[in-house]
TrEMBL record, chain A:
This is Amino acid/amide ABC transporter ATP-binding protein 2, HAAT family. Pfam families: ABC_tran (PF00005). It comes from Parageobacillus thermantarcticus. InterPro entries: AAA+_ATPase, ABC_branched_ATPase_LivF/BraG, ABC_transporter-like_ATP-bd, ABC_transporter-like_CS, BCAA_Transport_ATP-bd_LivF, P-loop_NTPase. GO terms for biological process: L-amino acid transport.
UniProtKB/TrEMBL annotation, chain B:
It holds the Pfam family BPD_transp_2. Keywords: Amino-acid transport, Cell membrane, Membrane, Transmembrane, Transmembrane helix, Transport. The chain crosses the membrane at residues 12-31, 61-85, 97-116, 128-158, 187-213, 220-244, 264-283. GO terms for molecular function: transmembrane transporter activity. This is Amino acid/amide ABC transporter membrane protein 1, HAAT family. PANTHER family: ABC TRANSPORTER PERMEASE PROTEIN (PTHR11795:SF452), BRANCHED-CHAIN AMINO ACID TRANSPORT SYSTEM PERMEASE PROTEIN LIVH (PTHR11795). It comes from the Bacteria. It is a multi-pass membrane protein. Belongs to the binding-protein-dependent transport system permease family. LivHM subfamily. Its main location: membrane. GO terms for biological process: amino acid transport. InterPro entries: ABC_transp_permease, BCAA_transport_permease. It comes from Parageobacillus thermantarcticus.
Length: 235, 288
């Protein structure tokens, strides 16, 4: 479904990502592991078209998309729920969700369905629908960010660090919801530092180190890999 | 008492013009995050285009205004495409320098085409009307009513339509807007279109009372900056309320203090606001 072939990304003279190959099949949950600054977010930004790659190509459903603008990539069905959430903080929860459905703005009925679906996944958003997004707690903002991404009915959902800054109990809940979204037919590419929880729901993973992929394999393989276990999962 | 209300009406007139100019300025600030120093030059160009349409082409006042709004809106879009868009990744200082460059260019252009003389704009609304025992010219009534009408329209556009909401979304989070599929180039162009049109409308409404000349935008743009600092940079309601606050202060100050000091009032207010509440009066929680 999505393929990154020998992708390199540079910020000025600094190479943030080098020769990365990633393959995501339809229906999968694929996780990118690695510490801060390893290049995961850069990969996400590049897929979404916010950064331009310096080498390689990105192919989505047979088409090269690495020269597309970010809004065109969203229209293709690749939607990112970015790190830092990127919400419209002075709009209400409801207005944020509505903006998420921007590419379907002419289909009122479809928007209503998506809205109900998001409210089902995150009942708290329905409760707080008239609150300003900026006034929500961190966990609620994360839910809103995911909800807003779902409003565009993505084929491929990019989730950048959905568990960052969340209480352990909510983290678990968040991963259950991610699993459910995947079961309902959305392919998911996930960047996480919380390797343990992520590998539990993922089909396969890539471990990033200094902008390159150090290890890759199925979730079982990564769990079994001693180095990965030591570095990212702990005991 | 009647005299006082008369002054309030004057304030309402002046405030309407200020609000229209400040609205365009604050919208563009929200999108670009730079103060568009050239906004006053757009205002000036708007006055000249309306005047030319009336005197040279013999168009009626209203039609001349509409054409002027379209022309200046388009000019705004051109500035975005030719000047600000190529600078989008440059340091913010470059945008500011470019804006000043545009300002100087447009003023020299106006002087070259229309001359440096002060010109009067005729209006079909010169008659004096009586309203609840108050006397005011129909032109002033027109300024107040059409400004309020435009503001209501703009409010519904920004609040109730998807296309209008993209402007708000982009001003609150540029990348967030991009990531929900909004084409930020289109939003930037649309914002400049609206901003330019509002400036042209303000100038066309105010010119029959004031005069048309190459430097007519100077004081207006300075005051518009005071207004959006007062109302919070990028805030739409702040620009409207700030505009009227300044209008009222000026007209009351001119009456009860001195007409000579009228133009100083704005800057005195600016100094006071920046001392007491540097973030502006109407900045809501969560706004950066």
């Amino acid at each position: 479904m999505l393929e990154l072939r020998n992708v390199s990304v540079q910020y000025g003279s600094f190479t943030a990502v080098q020769n990365v190959n990633i393959h995501v099949h339809e229906g999968e949950i694929v996780v990118l592991l690695g510490s801060n600054g390893a290049g995961k977010s850069t990969v996400f930004r590049t897929i979404s078209g916010l950064n331009k790659l310096s080498k390689g190509e990105i192919v989505f459903k047979g088409n090269r998309i690495d020269r597309y603008s970010p809004d065109r990539i969203v229209q293709l069905g690749i939607v990112q729920c970015a790190e830092g959430r990127k919400l419209f903080s002075r709009m209400t929860v409801y207005e944020n969700l509505l903006m998420g459905a921007y590419i379907h703005r002419k289909e009122k009925e479809k928007i209503k369905q998506s809205l109900n679906h998001v409210y089902e996944l995150f009942p708290i958003l329905k409760e707080k629908r008239n609150d300003l997004a900026g006034a929500l707690s961190g966990g609620q903002q994360q839910m809103l960010a995911i909800g807003r991404a779902l409003m565009s009915r993505p084929k491929l959902l990019l989730l950048d660090e959905p568990s960052i800054g969340l209480a352990p109990l909510i983290v678990e809940q968040m991963f259950q919801i991610i699993k459910q979204i995947n079961k309902e037919g959305t392919t998911i590419l996930l960047a996480e530092q919380n390797a343990h929880a992520a590998l539990h729901i993922a089909h396969k993973g890539y471990v990033f180190e200094n902008g390159t992929i150090a290890v890759q394999g199925t979730s079982q393989e990564l769990f079994a890999n001693d180095n990965v276990h030591k570095a990212y999962i702990g005991t | 008492m009647e005299f006082f209300i008369q002054q309030l009406l004057n304030g309402l007139t002046v405030g309407s013009v200020y609000s229209l100019v400040a609205l365009g300025l604050t919208l563009v600030y929200g999108i670009l995050h730079i103060p568009n120093f050239a906004h006053g030059a757009l205002y000036m160009m708007g006055g000249y285009v309306t005047l030319t349409m009336m005197s040279k082409s013999g168009l009626p006042y209203w039609l001349a205004i509409v054409i002027s709004m379209i022309v200046i809106g388009t000019l705004g879009v051109l500035l975005e495409r030719l000047v600000f868009y190529p600078l989008r990744d440059a340091p913010p200082l470059h945008d500011k320098i470019a804006a000043i460059g545009i300002l100087l260019f447009l003023e020299a252009f106006a002087q070259f085409v229309w001359g440096a003389d002060y010109q009067t704009m005729p209006t079909p609304y010169g008659k004096v009307v009586n309203l609840f025992g108050l006397t005011l010219t129909a032109q002033r009534l027109l300024i107040i009513t059409s400004t309020i009408a435009i503001m209501v329209l703009l409010y519904f556009f920004l609040k109730k339509t998807f296309i209008g909401a993209t402007i708000i979304a982009m001003s609150q989070n540029r990348e967030g807007a991009n990531l929900v599929g909004i084409n930020i180039n289109k939003v930037a162009m649309m914002t400049f279109m609206i901003s330019g049109s509002l400036a042209a409308l303000a100038a066309s409404l105010a010119s029959p009372i004031n005069l048309v000349f190459p430097g007519m935008g100077h004081l207006v743009i300075l005051k518009a900056f005071v207004i959006i600092i007062l109302g919070g940079m990028g805030s739409v309601p702040g620009a409207i309320i700030g505009g009227y606050i300044l209008g009222f202060s000026e007209s009351l100050g001119a009456t009860y203090i001195s007409n000579d000091y009228k133009d100083i009032i704005a800057f005195v207010i600016l100094v006071i606001i920046l001392t007491i509440k540097p973030t502006g009066l109407f900045v809501r929680r969560g706004q950066s």
